[in-house]
Specification:
36% of the residues lie in helices and 22% in strands. By secondary structure, it is α/β, with parallel strands linked by helices.
């Protein structure tokens, strides 16, 4: 049985190597649905190759993409039209963030690289009154529920990879070339610490080994024009 499982896992690895797709980008459109139609300044933490930052630029006055990796940041600059209101900087998320406030703060698959509570506190401090924080995160599987959701994601993951690549071998997306690290916190710990820092936060488990976190500042918004 163990041999069969090992072979199956190796076969899955080979399939996904030939049919890669970006699990994080899968949630970009969902992120946009959490945001106003128009807003002022946006901060994208862990911006990678800049895919989300460029989407935010269609609604924002300006977007700042922040990432600690010089190579992927250089790639983001190459992929971004000169006319786009987006700037990418190489900096530490907790110590190098240019001063806010920002009407929107996003962070996709990067918060587990940081001290979690410190990061959420930092994002909150940089958020403008009435602003929105959206996080797509990765948590370590620990509970039975975690493992069940992970198991359910496997066939869905194969189907999505096949659909996105139309059955053909595809090149690895630029957004998937940045260094990654495994998550240390489980989902229950994420919920506990998030609620402590961000009263009223909404945290949800998601398919494809992700969770989402949405928090809106209770102050009066000065740049938004209504939800999308």
């Amino acid at each position: 049985m163990t041999t069969l499982l090992t072979r199956a896992l190796r076969a899955l690895d080979r399939f996904h190597a030939a049919h890669p797709w970006d699990h994080n980008a899968h949630y970009h459109r969902w992120i946009l649905r959490q945001l106003p139609r128009r807003f002022g300044r946006a901060l994208d933490v862990g911006s990678g190759s800049g895919d989300l930052a460029r989407l935010l630029a269609a609604r924002a006055t300006s977007v700042l993409g922040l990432d600690a990796d010089p190579a992927i940041t250089a790639r983001a600059r190459e992929l971004t039209p000169a006319a786009a209101p987006v700037r990418f900087v190489v900096a530490d998320a907790l110590t190098g963030t240019p001063p806010g406030p920002y009407d929107v703060v996003t962070c996709v698959a990067a918060v587990h690289h940081l001290p979690f509570s410190d990061a959420l506190t930092h994002f909150r401090r940089n958020l403008a009154p009435g602003g929105t924080l959206v996080v797509v995160g990765v948590a370590r599987a620990r509970s039975r529920g975690d493992h069940l959701i992970g198991a359910a994601a496997v066939p869905a993951n194969v189907a999505m990879a096949w659909a996105k690549n139309k059955g053909r071998t595809a090149p690895r997306p630029a957004s998937m070339t940045a260094p990654t690290f495994p998550a240390a916190m489980c989902f229950a710990d994420v919920v506990r610490d998030a609620r402590r820092v961000l009263p009223g936060v909404r945290v949800r488990r998601r398919l494809f080994w992700r969770y989402t976190l949405v928090w809106r500042d209770g102050g009066r918004a000065v740049t938004t024009t209504g939800p999308s």
